[in-house]
Amino acid sequence: MRNESHDAGTTLDAEKLAALVMAELPEIAEIADPGLREKVVSAWVLALQSSSFKSIRELPPAGNPNVMVVKRGDQTDHIRGVTRLAIKLADDFMENYPELQINRDIVIAGGICHDIGKTWEFDPERRRKWELTPRIAGRPSVRHPAYGAHICLMAGLPEEVAHIAAAHSGEGELLLRSLENTIIHYADHTYWYVLLAGDMIVPESVPAKDRRE
Ligand SMILES: [Fe+2]
Questions:
Q1: CA of 4 to the centre of ligand 1 (A)
Q2: How far is the centre of ligand 1, averaged over its atoms, from the C-alpha of 32 (Å)?
Q3: Residue 22 contacts by C-beta under 8 Å, 6 or more apart in sequence?
Q4: What is the pLDDT of residues 55-84, one digit of tens each?
């Protein structure tokens, strides 16, 4: 038997969370297809509901937990920054190479969702467990790209968006990235390395390979 009051509460929570997601990631409004826009919001609602985070702003402004930590802001600054950079890249290439088959909506949805899996990898409750027993679940059990792809597919997003979540980072070296994912990959890379060059990354959080003392 369905629990009506529970269902009503969950729906209400989902509606509130959806409004919060739209406010925290306003670039979602730039997605032209209303169905895709709705699914992007649902994916973030699902990701938050499946974590201990109540807002995307609670996630720190880092590439991986405690790695490439920006000196100010939160994870929304990263997601929005990568999305805006990717839109600019896509628009410039489409203007100058109109023969390129860039799907602008997929670029925007991909930018918004590329790090959606950080709600898993950054979750303090999960990280505590992984630190205590790394040889049981792994550390982390699943990195944010794989979990992000899972969330995207569960929310009914097209595989083109799940692919961007799954392969925007190092995992993408194992396969052939789509055109839209290539744009997100370099926008993401640009975001981190411009901030690093501008001394905006906490020095202790810079990986050894990127240190130039
Ligand atoms: Fe990213």
A1: 39
A2: 23
A3: 28, 29, 41
A4: 999 999 999 999 999 999 999 999 999 999
